[in-house]
Structures are given as C-alpha cells and as structure tokens.
Design brief:
The chain has 97 residues and is of the alpha+beta class. Helix content is 13%, strand content 25%. Strand 2 (78-79) and strand 3 form a beta hairpin.
C-alpha cells in the first residue's frame, strides 16, 4: 500500500481586534473642530391677521395656546378703514436653511 498522505496543519496567528475599552481615546474621536461650522440663518417674517375684533383676538389666543407667539408680541389692534375690521401684526425671526 502506498504511504498515507502527509497532512500538514498550518497554524496562522489570527489578528485580534483590540478591545475598545483599552483603545486610545483620541483614535476615531470626533474633535470639536471637525464639526460643521455653518451658522444658522434667520429671516424676519411678518404675520398679519385681518378680521373682526373677536376673530383677530381669538386667533391671537389660539396661536398662544399652540405655543407659537405670546399675545404681547402682537401689535395693538389697528383699524383697517373697513367697517368692523381690525388687523394685528406679529414680527418674528425664524430659522431658514
């Protein structure tokens, strides 16, 4: 009978991943200077509400309940020159972009 084939076992060293607990904390960390330096852009927006005295006051109260604007942020009620119509103006700075 022929000779049995020789089996060779080759052991290779497996590379182990380093334990994250013992890694240098500066590796892979995001430095503050790597963050985007975009400055938020703001724009002035004016809201004008026209209607009857009750309609305008109810709208101002509703926007207050929705946490959109404080009642004192609105202008005083201004007559429009039309019968039974007033207006109020709210100027806000809103973020765009």
């Amino acid at each position: 009978m022929g000779a049995a084939p020789t089996e060779r076992w080759q052991f290779t060293k497996r590379k182990r991943k380093p334990d994250p607990m013992f890694q240098d904390s500066s590796q892979g960390a995001v430095a503050f200077t790597d963050l985007p330096t975009t400055v938020p852009q703001f724009e002035t927006v004016r809201h004008m509400v026209f209607g009857s005295l009750d309609g305008v006051q109810n709208t101002i109260r509703l926007l207050h309940r929705l946490n959109y604007a404080e009642p004192n942020d609105w202008s005083r009620l201004l007559p429009t020159g039309r019968p039974n119509e007033v207006m109020a103006i709210l100027t806000r700075r809103v973020r765009v972009g």
